[in-house]
């Protein structure tokens, strides 16, 4: 029978009432769901997306268990028929356990893609408490209930959340137990992949090596120690392939129905996974349609019906642009493919660490295996053996989803959070990579003329290869300990530090005001967004503070900072203005500042309610004015500053005002509204720059309410500002030197204090002045500018004619150091800055530098 006749026979076997009706229903379900938003029924889809998934999942889960119990005896008999020799089975089990122990002991359990993972957790909390499948974006836990202040449709598929939901009655609503559950899936996925490949190829050594290669990849190990959906993807992909072969062999309506239930749940791992289902359908058709019966229509309808949760999510969010902002992150398939190959094969760092969580050899083995598979498929097809041609065809159709990821979801692995997408591809890559290695070892190790499928020599050869590959992964244990996957992912570090701070605190019921409140909700902690907090009345705020006994916290996190360091294809929505307004309006007491990296801190503060004063009007100052001794003598007697204290009444009852001159106390008094004038004796001033600083503090809360500085250059006895002195030469490793500005062109800002005069450089730098032996002293202050916070440390050194005269210790952000050097008799003055490690973020401010004769 030719192919045309075979295809016609398949259609004829579908052409019966049940087949036609079932097929139409199966096609109509996704068609109508996708059409609905385009015919003004988007709200209907939204409501279905919120309320339908949970009951469908429950029915699907129960039906799957019942069916498997019905078929369990048949499964035991079938699995016995595919199990390989005991030695290979034991070897597989040993390596599966060994890899899992390595992951469990060498990789810390923590989020890798925090925002996505917390969405799954928040949906699970909403499912558990409210039987709703949306993301509880903002919520409060109280008296065994979760009240969601804001709920949205989750753009993530909901299968993982459902599994969390069914585990919560047993293990608790504090979802930290998920880390152990994800680790448990690693050996199970290893063994399922092994069994699936054995079932389809009858090549146990190939199955073992492919499963091992997949499990040994760093990105796989890291994801199985997180709360990610990708480990579930690997687990379900292997389970689907195994059950597919079981259904293919037994070919009963019950087996195909069970497969349809598993495939439908597999589609709930990622939105793109729905596309790989076509591979299963196409290759199942010859069996499903081998006769006119109910197998095909029941399979089609079951698969379509229980795929509805994923279809609803895809339909509701069609047209949404999640990534890239102003940059079009979509339509870069070949660009992303090339970039990902570069990232996955990047050589080691100079210190021997992995640059990325990928092993280069694996990718090159995959490339060789791909070429081998194509040639083997063509060669065997010429001899009417289509096994490898079918494998190639299945893999190509299966990875339509990979095309969708790279084309439509900005699958660029140079964005660290996107590296998890590789888990969609890695099992197939491992299979292809293992093909030539296994076949080569079998060819050279199996005795010539031996009929034994896997000679002892081949088993030994594969074992040696397995030990080599395992050793190669294990010898990077220090990189795993250092969390080299996403160790520059700001948001995961932020969450890690916040949770670390919470562990240090006494146990208490707390409430958080945060830019991504669903992060806290996912862990079972109450939280709302900054904007919602601002909408509360003063009375509501006070009630909230009383309710939580003062344990209400504001957290300024990643969203509140600038975005110029972030990848243009990434999802970035900065709300710095919202945070700035919130901090200006609210009474906050700083609790902890945590330096993350790349330009931002996590700042934790106790929330005390809305300010009942205007922070911008607490104090206003005039420009400094010189007061002469008398009208006939221009010689300065004092320096005068006029200032106004503007807040009145009870609000300022506990406030104090302090005035310092060059950090020396000048005035300390209770704050009282009025107009004031302060004369500072000229004797108190130092040659060069002088800082007159006003600070207003609330004595009750110990919080600083205002901090204002004025600067005065006391031009006496020939003192000169170094920033005005001619520069003989200057070099620096990055950027250009700025006068009276930081390296990025901003006003100087060190540890929150503003300064006006000086030089902004980037370490390493060398600035040389020819001062002609005219001065005796050099004075300045120095620190790292707050505009860039990720420096590993910088030191500043003053040299006179090549000799070191003064040197700071290495300092980091938040420190201001005073430098004074005796430069008497010095001809060539040099100021050097040099980093402790790399030069990143080493934005050094040389503040108020003066040359004194």
Mind explaining what this structure looks like?
The protein is α+β, with helices and mostly antiparallel strands and 853 residues long. Strands 16, 18, 21, 23, 26 and 28 form a 6-stranded antiparallel β-sheet that branches. Strand 9 (625-630) and strand 10 (633-645) form a beta hairpin. Helix 5 (86-106) runs antiparallel to helix 8, helix 5 (86-106) runs parallel beside helix 9 (204-215) and helix 17 (360-382) packs across helix 18.
The global form is: elongated
User: Helix share of residues?
Assistant: 40-55%
Uncertain stretches of 5 or more adjacent residues: none
Q: How much is the average pLDDT? A: 89
Number of strands: 28
The largest β sheet comes out as:
6 strands, antiparallel
Q: What structural class do you assign from the helix and strand content?
A: alpha+beta
Portion of residues in beta strands equals 15-25%
Distance between the termini: 105 Å
How many whole angstroms does the radius of gyration measure?
34 Å
Give the number of helices.
Answer: 27
Highlighted features:
853 residues, alpha+beta, 6-stranded antiparallel β-sheet, 5-stranded mixed β-sheet, 27 helices, 45% helix, elongated
Topology:
Layout (H helix, E strand, L loop, with lengths): L2 H12 L2 H19 L6 H10 L1 H30 L3 H21 L7 H17 L4 E8 L2 E8 L6 H13 L6 H24 L2 H12 L2 H6 L6 H21 L2 H14 L10 H12 L6 H12 L1 H9 L16 H12 L15 H23 L4 H12 L1 H9 L13 H24 L10 H19 L2 H5 L8 H15 L6 E3 L4 H5 L3 E3 L1 H6 L2 H10 L4 E5 L19 H10 E10 L5 E10 L8 E3 L3 E6 L2 E13 L9 E7 L2 E7 L3 E8 L6 E11 L4 E12 L5 E2 L7 E4 L5 E2 L8 E3 L2 E3 L2 E5 L2 E6 L6 E8 L9 E7 L2 E5 L9 E6 L5 E8 L7 E10 L1
Parallel strand pairs: 3-4, 3-5
Antiparallel strand pairs: 1-2, 5-7, 6-7, 8-10, 9-10, 10-13, 11-12, 11-14, 14-15, 16-28, 17-22, 18-21, 19-20, 21-28, 22-27, 23-26, 23-28, 24-25, 24-27
Helix pairs in contact: 2-14, 2-15, 3-15, 4-12, 5-8, 5-9, 5-21, 6-7, 8-9, 8-11, 9-20, 9-21, 11-12, 12-14, 13-18, 16-19, 17-18, 17-20, 20-21
């Amino acid at each position: 029978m030719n192919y045309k006749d075979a295809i016609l026979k398949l259609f004829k076997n579908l052409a019966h009432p049940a087949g036609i009706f079932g097929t139409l229903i199966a096609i109509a379900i996704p068609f109508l769901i996708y059409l609905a938003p385009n015919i003004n029924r988007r709200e209907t889809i939204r409501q279905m997306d919120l309320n339908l998934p949970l009951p469908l999942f429950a029915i699907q889960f129960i039906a799957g268990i019942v069916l498997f119990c019905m078929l369990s005896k048949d499964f035991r008999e079938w699995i016995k028929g595919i199990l390989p020799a005991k030695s290979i089975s034991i070897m597989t089990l040993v390596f599966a356990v060994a890899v899992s122990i390595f992951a469990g002991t060498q990789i810390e359990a923590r989020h890798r893609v925090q925002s996505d993972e917390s969405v799954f957790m928040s949906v699970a909390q909403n499912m558990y408490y409210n039987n709703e499948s949306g993301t509880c974006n903002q919520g409060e836990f109280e008296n065994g209930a979760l009240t969601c202040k804001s709920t949205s449709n989750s753009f993530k598929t909901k299968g993982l959340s459902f599994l969390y939901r069914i585990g919560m009655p047993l293990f608790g609503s504090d979802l930290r137990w998920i880390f152990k559950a994800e680790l448990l899936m690693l050996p199970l996925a290893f063994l399922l992949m092994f069994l699936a490949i054995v079932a389809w190829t009858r090549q146990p050594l190939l199955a073992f090596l492919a499963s091992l290669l997949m499990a040994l990849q760093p990105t796989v190990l890291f994801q199985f120690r997180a709360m990610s959906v990708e480990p579930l993807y690997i687990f379900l992909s292997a389970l689907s392939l195994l059950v597919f072969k079981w259904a293919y062999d037994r070919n009963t309506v019950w087996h195909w129905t069970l497969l349809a239930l598993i495939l439908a749940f597999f589609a709930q791992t990622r939105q793109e996974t729905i596309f790989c289902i076509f591979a299963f359908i196409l290759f199942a058709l010859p069996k499903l349609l081998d006769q006119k019966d109910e197998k095909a229509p029941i399979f089609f309808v079951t698969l379509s019906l229980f795929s509805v949760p994923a279809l609803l999510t895809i339909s509701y969010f069609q047209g949404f642009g999640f990534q890239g902002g102003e940059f079009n992150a979509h339509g870069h398939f070949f660009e992303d493919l090339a970039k990902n190959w570069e990232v996955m094969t990047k050589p080691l760092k100079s210190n021997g660490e992995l640059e990325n969580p990928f092993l280069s050899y694996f990718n090159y083995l995959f490339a060789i295996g791909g070429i081998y598979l194509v040639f083997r498929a063509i060669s065997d097809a010429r001899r009417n053996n289509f096994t490898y041609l079918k494998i190639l065809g299945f893999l190509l159709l299966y990875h339509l989803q990979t095309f969708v990821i790279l084309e439509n979801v900005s699958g660029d692995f140079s964005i660290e959070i996107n590296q998890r997408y590789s888990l969609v591809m890695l099992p197939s890559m491992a299979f292809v990579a293992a093909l030539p290695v296994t076949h080569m070892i079998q060819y050279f190790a199996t005795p010539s003329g031996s009929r034994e499928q896997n000679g002892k020599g081949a088993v030994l050869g594969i074992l040696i290869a397995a030990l080599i590959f395992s050793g190669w992964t294990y010898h990077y244990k220090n990189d795993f300990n250092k969390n080299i996957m996403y160790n520059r992912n700001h948001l995961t570090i932020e969450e890690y530090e916040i949770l670390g701070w919470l562990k240090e605190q006494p146990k208490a019921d707390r409430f958080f005001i945060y830019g991504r409140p669903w992060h806290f909700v996912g862990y079972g902690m109450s939280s709302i967004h900054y904007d919602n907090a601002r909408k509360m009345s003063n009375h509501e705020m006070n009630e909230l503070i009383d309710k939580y006994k003062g344990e209400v916290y504001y957290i300024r996190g990643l969203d509140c900072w600038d975005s110029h360091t972030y990848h243009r294809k990434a999802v970035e929505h900065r709300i710095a203005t919202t945070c700035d307004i919130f901090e200006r309006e609210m009474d906050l007491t700083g609790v902890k500042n945590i330096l993350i990296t790349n330009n931002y801190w996590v700042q934790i503060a106790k929330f005390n309610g809305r300010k009942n004063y205007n922070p911008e009007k607490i104090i206003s100052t005039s420009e400094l004015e010189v007061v002469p001794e008398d009208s006939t003598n221009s010689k300065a007697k004092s320096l005068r500053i006029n200032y106004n204290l503007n807040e009145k009444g009870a609000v300022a009852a506990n406030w104090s005002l302090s005035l310092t001159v060059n950090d020396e106390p000048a005035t300390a008094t209770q704050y009282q509204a009025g107009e004031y004038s302060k004369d500072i004796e000229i004797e108190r001033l130092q040659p060069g720059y002088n800082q007159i600083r006003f600070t207003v503090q609330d004595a009750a809360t110990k919080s600083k309410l205002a901090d204002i500085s004025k600067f005065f250059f006391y031009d006496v006895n020939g003192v000169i500002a170094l920033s005005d002195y001619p520069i003989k030469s200057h070099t620096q490793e990055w950027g250009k030197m700025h006068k009276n500005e930081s390296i990025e062109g901003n006003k100087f800002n060190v540890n929150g204090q503003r300064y006006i005069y000086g030089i902004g450089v980037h370490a390493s730098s060398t600035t040389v002045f020819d001062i002609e032996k005219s001065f005796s002293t050099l004075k300045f202050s120095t620190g790292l500018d707050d505009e860039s916070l990720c420096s590993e440390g910088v030191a500043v050194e003053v040299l006179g004619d090549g000799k070191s005269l003064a040197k700071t210790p290495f300092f980091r952000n938040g420190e201001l150091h005073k430098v004074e050097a005796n430069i008497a008799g010095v001809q060539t003055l040099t100021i050097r800055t040099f980093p402790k490690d790399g030069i990143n973020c080493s934005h050094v401010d040389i503040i108020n530098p003066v040359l004194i004769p």
